[in-house]
From TrEMBL:
PANTHER family: PERIPLASMIC PHOSPHATE BINDING COMPONENT OF PHOSPHATE ABC TRANSPORTER, PHOSPHATE-BINDING PROTEIN PSTS. Keywords: Signal. The keyword Signal applies. This is Phosphate transport system substrate-binding protein. Residues 45-278 form the PBP domain. It comes from Chryseobacterium soldanellicola. Signal peptide: none annotated. The lineage of its organism: Bacteria, Pseudomonadati, Bacteroidota, Flavobacteriia, Flavobacteriales. InterPro entries: PBP_domain, Phosphate_ABC_transporter.
Amino acid sequence: MALSGFSGQFPDSKKQTMKIKFLLLSFIFIILGCHKEDKNVPTYNKGNLTILTDESFKSVTEALSEGYMINYPETHFKVQTKKEDLGFLDLLNNKARIVVMSRSLSKGEIKAYEEKVNLKYLPARFAADAVVFVVPKSSAKTKITMEEITNGLNSDDKNFIFDGTNSSNLNFVAEKLKKQPRDLKFSIISGNQNIIEQLNKYPDKIGVIGLNTLSRPYDKTSEKLREIVKILPVENKGKAYFPDSEGLREMNYPFTRVLYFLTSEGNFSIANGFIRFSCTQLGQMIVQKEGLQPYNLYRREVQMR
């Protein structure tokens, strides 16, 4: 059996050396050519990404994206606010690569995600947030019970103010009460911040907003908003729970919700790179600085000598 390219005589050492050099140069050119072809392929450390998020947790999403861009200067993020349900539909219809979610998906929605995106449903959880109930600082009200919430959302008085239909806050409260959002009765003021700023005009009403609107400890806007309203602890079975770090960490506060990412990206590119970053210790420190509870707890070890 003859081997292709073998003439039956051994070449001298000079010819052999030249042949090796030629093969090496050819190999280098091939590698360089492949590298050149891959230059425009998006990777985790370069490229553009739009993140869809409900307005209620826009702040933590922006903080995480800024942290990622600092670590990878060739990445460019745009955080776009969109009602939670509409953002999920954009993901299904290939109009978005990543979306932030808080409510649980139904079996039908999970099936639609897996069929349309062609990926296994694996929510990337990164923070514990909450839906909170607020009243003006001047209000005599000091707490709210689960019964008041349930009865109030079935009353024609519409004493609860949400930031709109299809919003994460409305969806989550409906889910907790085992209701459909369309079955609840409520008033609407568009935007969490607008609810806080206009609540004094409606002293008998209760605002329902995302905790992240108020939770940023060093943010001037949050500080200003915290001076206008107070958060009501929620009483459940005779015990009042507050959406503080303990209430979120132990999920004792009845309206604690877990934020998570969903992506349509099947490879390890910029969206999955961002998700991984958000779940690492550095990303979780950013979540904590936003006044929310990190989902992944990292044990700190101090060695004493």
